[in-house]
Write a structure and sequence with these properties.
Blueprint (H helix, E strand, L loop, with lengths): L1 H24 L5 E2 L8 E9 L3 E2 L3 E10 L6 E9 L2 E9 H4 L7 E10 L7 E11 L4 E12 L1 H4 L3
Parallel strand pairs: 3-9
Antiparallel strand pairs: 1-9, 2-4, 4-7, 5-6, 5-8, 8-9
Pfam families: E1_DerP2_DerF2 (PF02221)
Protein name: MD-2-related lipid-recognition domain-containing protein
Keywords: Signal
Length: 156
């Protein structure tokens, strides 16, 4: 009986490890808010570290993008939803998230934030809207991310 329980526990550990490994390397589905919008800033990739995010620990969001025009400033607005319910909104100066001025070509927006330890685990949707100094929309994307249970994924 003890051998059966040990085998069961090892199988359970293997399945859990497999799930964590593949959930952390799954492709991040970036969607533009307006499919017909021809935004001057195109987003290529979103990297989140750690992935899944751990409540109470810092998480870094790196958004790789390119622009066809030079940018000297603007705003980045972040809206977060949990199972479709809006839970958080914040606005940042574009030049605090990347070096300004931004020349035409590739650049990276980087933001690190520590979520409160009471943040519930689960799937979240983040909507990022970027505007220039004249409040003209430069881009708008959405993507999903996960927040894991701290005690199970905190040793990264």
């Amino acid at each position: 009986m003890a051998q059966v329980m040990t085998l069961f526990n090892l199988n359970l550990l293997f399945i859990f490890s497999f799930f964590l490994l593949f959930s952390s390397i799954e492709a991040r589905g970036i969607k533009y808010c307006d499919k017909k919008g021809d935004y001057p800033v195109k987003v290529q990739e979103v990297e989140i570290s750690p992935d899944p995010v751990v409540s109470g620990n810092p998480a870094t969001f790196n958004i790789s993008a390119s622009t066809v025009q030079a940018l000297s400033g603007g705003k980045v607005v972040i809206d977060v939803s949990y199972f479709g319910v809006h839970v958080h909104k914040e606005t940042h100066d574009l030049c605090e998230e990347t070096s300004c001025p931004i020349s035409s070509g590739n650049f990276v927006l980087s933001h690190t934030q520590t979520l409160p330890a009471i943040t519930p685990p689960g799937s979240y949707t983040l909507k990022m809207t970027m505007t220039d100094k004249n409040k003209q929309k430069l881009t708008c994307i959405t993507f999903n991310f996960k927040i894991g249970i701290g005690s199970l994924v905190s040793d990264h």
